[in-house]
Amino acid sequence: MKKAILSLSTLAIFFTIGFTACEKIEKDTPQAIKKLIREKGKHGGQVIEYEYNHEYVYCWDDHCYDGFIICYNEKGKELWLSGGLDGLGDGKCPEDFFDKAIFKRIIWTSNKTKKQVVWIQ
Hints:
single chain; alpha+beta; 3 helices
């Protein structure tokens, strides 16, 4: 009985490691963004890095229809919400963001995310 419980526990650990190991976070990602991924990532999603006005912006897209895309600075401070049911977000997204933001890379995609969607290119 003890061996069966130990075997199941070992299997559960390897199963968990196997799934999280596939969800690689790019090495040079700011620590605050890595922390956000670890906290929110279990539900799926994707984090995309943009350069905007000489600063980096990290947009969290959980791929929920009519959900918000939450944009953060490199310190993990929430900057604005984009999208949502009406598509207007919280009204804080700079008007020129979609014109001036430069797509840099996808820094993380969850295994639960079925496809990679680049929001702005």
